Amino acid sequence: MPTTPMRLVTVIAEPVLEERIIAALRQLGATGHTASDVRGAGSRGIRASDPPGTCVQIQVVCRDAVADAILAHVAEHYFEHYAVIAWTSAVEVVRGEKYQ
Q1: Would you say 71 and 86 are in contact if contact means Cβ atoms under 8 Å apart?
Q2: Angle at 95 between CA 29 and CA 88, to 5 degrees
Q3: Could you tell me which of 79, 81, 33 has the C-alpha nearest to residue 57?
């Protein structure tokens, strides 16, 4: 089965940021996302709101340019004042035409 190289962007953030981040994803060219409630602990130990340890994980499969724009946006708008981490991974997607 043929696959298409894409990028998976994962953002783990405080739940208060979920709607803002998802809105930005759309504006930056993401065609969809997956959001999950997750738990964990980080190095900063500070949070703007919500119970300690609760987070939202937002994942997007997208083209390189969209992935780069998402990471830049999250870093610029949220890293300084919120508990947020983001990374990207190379993935191979079946039905890659959905992302064009």
Answers
A1: yes
A2: 50
A3: 33
Q: pLDDT by residue (tens digit) across 64-97?
A: 999 999 999 999 999 998 889 999 999 999 987 7
Over residues 55-71, mean pLDDT: 96
Phi, psi of 3 (to 5 degrees): -125, 165
Question: Which residue segments constitute the domains of the chain, with CATH numbers given?
Answer: 4-99 (3.30.70.120)
Q: What are phi and psi of 78, to 5 degrees?
A: -130, -25
Q: How far apart are CA 25 and CA 32, in angstroms?
A: 8
Sign of CA dihedral 75, 80, 24, 27: negative
Average pLDDT value for residue range 30-44: 84
